[in-house]
Batch of 3 targets.
Target 1
Amino acid sequence: MSNIRAALELALGILPEEDLNVLTNTVVTSTRKANSIICREGALEHVFYIIQDGKVAFTKKMDTGEQFLGLKGKGEFFGELGVLDRAPRAATVHAISDCKLIEIHEDTLDTILTRNPSVARAIMRGITRSMRDTDQITIAELQLKNEELAKTLDNLRAAQAELLRRERLKRDLEIAAQVHKSVLPTTFPNVPNFEFAALARPAREIGGDLYDVIPVDDENVGIVMADASGKSVQAAIYMAIVRALFLSQAQANLSTTEIAHSVHELLMKVSTAEMFVTVFYANLNHETRQMKYVRGGHDRPIYYHAATGQIHLLDIPGRFLGLLPGLIVEEDSLTFETGDVLVCYSDGATDAVRPGDNEMYGLEQLQAIVAKNGRRSAQELADIIVNDIDKFRDGEDQPDDLTLLVTKAI
């Protein structure tokens, strides 16, 4: 049993004890002999696999024959797209050595995804790695073809076409960066009894995070923090759609759960199967200082109590929006007292890595810096958090978009 727990955490990261117990008690283990087929392309299955031991290869049928896509080994996983999208297997998986596998049914995976956004991030990283490996194979094949055609006129034409494509891509990236920049507010509305501060620093030219403070009526504002899957042009366009949907739904005098469900249903209609968004959305009455909120799979916001100097996480359950049918979110509420602070953040804050030992900044360190500096102004606190993360990274590349939204009762 301990071997199963170790394999789960190696693949999915450190999980809460409750989630580990759920997985450990529901997964099925199996062994596959070398040279056997684990999954066939086109088959419809409902299982997500983690490799406990051994190595597997992926192939796909092409016009020219069977195409090799890549290898995976101990601590890695596969089958996630078929389970999340409920689509046929996109490739055939071969055991190239004797393999020990952990099998997780889609219902169990769905439960864990709802409770723990870190698992969703681990799976998205696995998808990204698979896509990157496939891209590298494709790039290598194209390079070989270009070498073979180097002395032909077609090679010149291809080079000219590639130059034009790169120019168009460069322009598309510039437009997408402008789109994302325009999505983020440059100023916040003047809200009695509250002040706000924010920072957004994309990991690449184009980010996929969103924050906003939305005027609703004379007494209420909406607070939104969101993180779209993926990066680049598609994420920027997708996040522009998300912001437009929240702006329109916030004006309809709906509850936070109704707004989340409405945005989710609209995203299901307009977005692709590869895209989803994690969200924290709140309705803040600045007269009564009461805030009602939902959390759709987003990182848990940190709440600082000025009177006691204590902090706690807004840990209400909920699942990300725009990907799976049957959204699950719950509403909770709290009342601000003077000096209380709410810190919303994206995973670029907690996932920052220190060079040398690759230790992550982590949620505990973020909580500690908020507790230590909670009495500062909203802007001062935001600056202190970012400076502390940058000091921790010590020049290491930023792993993901770093976004903060600080709300302080005054």
Target 2
Amino acid sequence: MTSVRVSKPFVILAAAFLVLFINGGARHVVGLTLRPMVDDMGWVRGDLGGAVAIFQVCTAFAMFLSGRAIDALSPRTVLCGGLALCGMATLSLSLVTQPWQVLVAFGFFYAIGNGVCGVVPVAVMVSRVYPAGAGAASGVSISGMSVGQFFMIGILAFVLTSIGWRQVFVWAGLAHFVLLPVLWWAIPGGAQVAATGAARPQGHLPVEAARTKTFWLLIGIYAVCGFDDFFVTTHVVAFALDSGLDPWVAGNLLAIMGVTGLIGVVASGYWGDRSGPAPATIAAFAARTAVFALVYVDQSPLSVTIFALVFGLTFLITAPLTVLFVRDAFGMAHLGTIAGLITMVHHIFGGIGAWLGATVFDHTGHYDGAFAVACVGSLVALVLTMMLGKRGEGGPAAISAP
């Protein structure tokens, strides 16, 4: 593989931020519009919960493939292709009349595009440009998801209340196409974007990584993380409305969570560079366990608001830490592939979380059972993270070239 000498790493970092700005805002539009769509079309929440579950599975496999692609192909090709597919799929959602159309447009086509221009290729790209500060650089780029969630969901919530849920998809779709020419200009077209003078990366093959305890601990941790993330983001607006929050406040909860998520993701990147990825992950799951327990026993508007703010703080914490976990344990040679595989599991279990939340509500009329599962799962993930051991154990220093 041929490396491309990059003279303007900041431009690449800014482009990465913008990709995830759009990605982070647009992927939550189904959660934002869930109740209005269901009420308008006479569907049940399980119809859209199923589409979100399929989305999670499809985007998970797309993330794994994007990880492999970013190890070998041009980041510009990978990211622009995914962005264009997302834009077309989002626009098509404005025309749906049947649940199966949501499943195809969002669950399949948007999911593939979302995975291809998602966290994995972006984090790998910036970690190669900033090898000494991979956590901080990844945190800054991934913070685009929180900023995008705040600004885009805030704007789209206004569109929703003003002119309806179909226009939400029109505006979100057009945002993807506005970014395309900027992205094409900002990112070089070579096989890899890497730091100037970087040596050939070394590390474990994916099959070698899969034989280690660390790999399976990470799989368990990220499975729980995905379940939590997409259960909450898919259902938090509907849950807030059910709990008596004002419709405008409930509609903006996702945007508010984006603000706290911005703090969490940037802080975790810097924290990860200095102390390793485990401490920030432990803090995130401890906080999640506490707030899931809170909202299970008390669903007053105040508790729901506290839950949303604290969970939002943890929402993206593990995202910039993925490349640190993988780099420290398995090296850089197959960073995209192994990180993509772990993120694939994260999103598959995210689909399970979104589906379970809808199924529990449709059968019981509330989300209590799903909150109990999420609370126990977060406690398990907390224990698994504590089992990972010291930073760097089995890391690059102990890895020979494959």
Target 3
Amino acid sequence: MPIAKGLVSGSTPSRQRVDPSAFSQIVVPVPDAISEQRAIAAVLGKLQAAVAAQQAIIDRTAELKAALMAKLFTEGTRGEPTKETVSGIVPISWGSKPLGDAIEPPQYGLSVRGEAAGRYPILRMNCQRNGRVAFDDLQYVDIDDRTFAAYKLRRGDILFNRTNSADLVGRTAIFDDDRDAVFASYLIRMQPRRDELLPAYLNHYLNWERTQQRLKAIATRGVSQSNISAGKLKIFDVAFPTPDEQEEIAGALGAVDQRIAFAEAQRELSHELFAAMLDELMTGRIRVNELDLAALGVSADA
């Protein structure tokens, strides 16, 4: 545990504090040579810059995706004239109808308490990341085979976040995995009828900023949470082109998602390298003169 965190006192996050007098007594190891201190700072600065550079790529690519979504969901890929519908401006050949007409009956998740271990992972609200289901921070449930069969997730299922804060309600993710898993009660499972509505297209469409605004407008507001019921979801209008054009749109947006995922992976690698190097240099297990400073882009007289 970091030394400073070990000095924290207080029973709740809002009341926690560090005693200034105790903090001032922390012993900081300092290399004798100013040149070594400068070199350490330069090396760590380069690694921090690498993390920041990847984050900048992620941010710029996310902005590109937002602009691309707005163009594709209002203009399509065929250069057609547009028309006004209940769901907004769309190409003239697109259809628009209630979501319930294009999916199987939506299904609420399991009302079972998750545990640290169990037979099956139960995916919750926190298992959504950038429109995809992530097996992160998992909890598990022990359920019988019949219950598992009723709630087992299948590739292409859409998980809709029906209850959360006003900012997060309506967040949607696609399950694109073959691992066994079930889903929790705060989520709704949607299974598109693929002859008219492709899962990847629907997932992108529901996560589009303009659609998210429309979804939040139909949410029931509570003191700290908002809710969108399956009934409201079924009558929510969606716009969609032919399956061929849906596939083109999903493919274009999926390619942007892949670029973001690659940059996120590179950012995490850079962050892990920074954390490891910080620990090694600050404890003296590695001295800066043992590093190839030229390869790191650091001047020897930094």
